[in-house]
Amino acid sequence: MSTAVVVEAPGEHRLIAHTPREPGPGEALVRVHAVGICGSDREVYQGNRPEGYVRYPLTPGHEWSGTVEAVGAGVPDSLAGRKVVGEGFRNCQVCDRCHAGETTLCTAGYEETGFTRPGAMAATLTLPARLLHVLPDDCDLTAAALLEPAACVAAAAIKANALPGERVAVVGTGTLGMFAVQFLKAGSPGELLVVGTRGEREALSRRYGATDFRTRSAEGPPLPGDFDVVIETAGSADAARTSAALLRRGGRLVLTGIPAPGAQGLDPTDLVVRQLEVHTVFGAPPDAWAHTVRVFAAGLLDPLPLVTHELPLREFPRAIELVGSGDPGVGKVLLRP
Questions:
Q1: pLDDT band for position 169 (50/70/90)?
Q2: pLDDT of 313-334, one tens digit each?
Q3: How confident is the model at residue 214, as a pLDDT?
Q4: Which run of H or of E encompasses 28?
Q5: To which H or E segment does residue 167 belong?
Q6: CB 3.0-4.6 Å disulfide test: which of 165, 176, 200, 204 passes with 233?
Q7: What CATH number is given to the structural domain containing 201?
Q8: In angstroms, rounded to a whole number, what is the distance separating the alpha carbons of residues 218 and 85?
Q9: What is the pLDDT of residues 294-318, one digit of tens each?
Q10: CA–CA distance, 283 with 153 (Å, rounded to integer)
């Protein structure tokens, strides 16, 4: 029997029978292969996602891969049978920001698969076909389930605009941080430093292309301060300040993490005097998704080493528990419908 996870309210979930929704005009029905869990899914389950960014009852799941089973009117038949991933943000396509390609800033308001619309923790997912990105036929769909977080990092890499030979750094060693290392490595940096809090991530960081690895600690030697580009992925105010301190005068900083509300921010005097260029990322617009799929297809992204657990859909509570455990042995957790 096909099933789906439904979070009825914070802390309350059910496993229900799932009936695929036939695709309407402009839509596609996707058979889900795997769906990833991240901290925001845990927020949905716990009930501490910001107001307006979740709508209960809800089938979660915004990081996924699958195969198109059917298409609705107006969608090319050639899409059926193709391996795909899909954008999460549902955008209006007609506002000023959408016309500029900045669909994550759509002025029609926030709507996203797995948060305000049904997500992929189900046997199938039906969504607008325009949100799909087609993958190579020979790709690994388990690896592809991680392309949503990769696309968010691709948006950061595009904004960072690191040139070959520049000195670049990544702060944070979670899934986003490890993708940032891979994107920056693909641009042939002169030096690639990774800064984290967990020494056990050094081997994987170096495997992905880091030339140096440091842990943030008061006892260790001071961190350098002459990098051209820093991408922050740790999601803490302290990590943001560490990132800014790594930069040379006029350097470029991209923040992707979201600290807790009320966090103390960067020093505006420091930003102005050192003329730092600061960018931020929330989600991934279409160009970042397209870039991610190209880089993945070219063999320059290797997501599989980040996956430590694959569980059946019925073990949703255990998966949520693993994600929040703080266990350094827990990396990316995937559910398999």
A1: very high
A2: 999 999 999 999 989 899 999 9
A3: 95
A4: strand 27-37
A5: strand 167-171
A6: 176
A7: 3.40.50.720
A8: 42
A9: 999 999 999 999 999 999 999 999 9
A10: 9
Which of the four pLDDT bands, split at 50, 70 and 90, describes residue 218? low
Six-digit token string for 100: 């500029």
Half-sphere exposure of 240 (CA within 13 A, CB side): 22
Cα torsion angle, 311, 58, 153, 82, sign: positive
* pLDDT score of 220 more than 80: no
CA distance 42 to 23: 29
Sign of CA dihedral 163, 165, 167, 173: positive
Locate 208 and state its tokens: 């992905």
Structure tokens at 249: 């005068």
Same-domain pairing of 91 and 197 = no
Residue type, 125: L
Same domain? For 167 and 264 the reply is yes
pLDDT at 219 > cutoff 80: no
Per DSSP, the three-state class of 7 is strand
Domain of residue 113: give its range. 3-146+303-336
Torsion angle (degrees, nearest 10) of CA 119, 122, 124, 127? -10
3-class SS of residue 305: helix
pTM (two decimals): 0.95
- For position 77, which CATH number holds? 3.90.180.10
Q: Is the pLDDT of residue 131 over 80?
A: yes
Q: How far apart are CA 238 and CA 223, in angstroms?
A: 14
Measured distance CA(18)–CA(118) in Å, rounded: 12
Reply yes or no: is the peptide bond before residue 50 cis, omega within 30 of 0: no
Q: Are 306 and 283 in contact (CB under 8 A)?
A: no
